[in-house]
């Protein structure tokens, strides 16, 4: 049932990539011309941030009342957050929520300044954290990327009737292995890079799809994107980008050259660029890479059958 509150709320539609999202806010605005009860806080999944940063529809509406946004469910990069700040200058803070059910939900306090806005936050009291090398299992120093481990008295006892799954993610001394790649900066801010299982390994070097996606979203002619690793005989895997055009004249070579100009060679899109109508995502905003991998697999099967 609804929770009584002195603050106004406005239900948002289940179709975040349509104009209905903005209409919901606008309709609430028109019902409150005195601006006393306007929407000031938005809780959003990452695809809606992409929508706010990239969709031209946003320019048609007055969203100046919005001052604070919180997002979660998937990593959000610095370039995307900067794009939203630029588009909606009245927004004071964009923060990322971080936590997991296995550790009692939220484990970190969100960022409330623009200096560390790409961070997931700082550790809450009664929690411990460490960054662990995924190869050696040793704890890593500051500014080194590894798997995020969390420990707290509220950690789960285990997954019901799933002892093997429990053993994989919960150590004997109660450290929960999050499956997230991240690092701690010199001041203790946690930055999430990507999911461990999503890593692309190019000649033994690790490439995080989220890093490439954040860079691609900063390109003005790109509306949305996703990156996966595809098999390669020489490198093991190479990155491939699926891109939704914002500019219909955008070419694969332009996208490739953009990444080439910004990143080290092993992060280039050697797997190619493919234009698509939309990026498959879950209701919580996570990119469904398995559908893209299946798409790529089916394409290779069709090519092989014609030979």
Automatic annotation (TrEMBL):
The reply on keyword Mitochondrion is: no
Residues spanning the signal sequence? none
Q: Which residues form the AMP-binding enzyme C-terminal domain?
A: 211-286
Q: Name one GO cellular component term.
A: peroxisome
Among the Pfam families in the record, one is AMP-binding
MF GO annotations:
CoA-ligase activity
Subcellular compartments? Peroxisome
InterPro entries reported in the protein's UniProt record: AMP-bd_C, AMP-bd_C_sf, AMP-dep_synth/lig_dom, ANL_N_sf
List where this protein forms a coiled coil: none
Tell me which UniProt keywords the record has, alphabetically. Answer: Peroxisome
Query: Which residues are in the AMP-dependent synthetase/ligase domain?
Result: 39-160
- Gene3D superfamilies hit by this protein: 3.30.300.30, N-terminal domain of ligase-like (3.40.50.12780)
Entry similarity comment: Belongs to the ATP-dependent AMP-binding enzyme family.
- What's the protein here called? Uncharacterized protein
**Species assigned in the record:** Acrobeloides nanus
**What are the leading ranks of the lineage?**
Eukaryota, Metazoa, Ecdysozoa, Nematoda, Chromadorea
